[in-house]
Structure formats: structure tokens, C-alpha cells
Amino acid sequence: MEPEDVETLIEEALPESTADVFRARGEHDDDHLAAEVTSPAFEGETIVDQHQMVYDALGDAMTTDIHALELTTKTPDEE
Fold first, then answer.
1. Which residue range forms the structural domain that includes residue 57?
2. For residue 33, which of 57, 51, 6 has the smallest C-alpha distance?
3. Which pLDDT value is given to residue 24?
4. Residue 79 lies in a domain
5. CB 18 within 8 A of CB 62
6. How many domains does the chain contain in total?
7. Position 29 in a domain
8. How confident is the model at residue 26 (pLDDT cuts 50, 70, 90)?
9. Whole-number pLDDT of residue 25
10. Would you list the DSSP string of 16-71?
11. One Pfam family, short name please (predicted)?
């Protein structure tokens, strides 16, 4: 799955969010992604819950198309 496709899935599922997805650096660049997601939906949520919201947004892609995802989440106030 291409980084742009992952960005689209996240941004469509989490209104007013921005997702920057790119290939993670390292020896497994082709199948390891990294994402930085900013969303007002994360306000008041724990990091674990924020990450779960992103995983939910990606649905089945997390088990079929994405091998690994390094995830950073924050609210707009944390930018």
C-alpha cells in the first residue's frame, strides 16, 4: 500500500485530521510505514486510544496491506 493511500484512509475516517505518511527508514523500507497524524478527535484521549482510532481508520489494511506502522499522534494544540 502506498503512503498516499494510507493518508487518504486516515483523513477520511478522522474528520479535520491531517496525516503525513512516509516509508520508515531502515532495512525494511518497502513494507514499513511511519505516520504522523494530527486530529482534534484526539483531544482528551490517551495515546493508546489515539493510536487505536488510527488503526480503526485503517481497518483491514492493518492486517493485509500494511506490514508495520510507526505512529505518532497529536492534537492541533500540540503542534
1. 3-74
2. 6
3. 83
4. no
5. no
6. 1
7. yes
8. low
9. 75
10. T-EEEEEEPSSTTTTTEEEEEEE-GGGTT--HHHHHHHHHHHHTTHHHHT-SEEEE
11. BolA
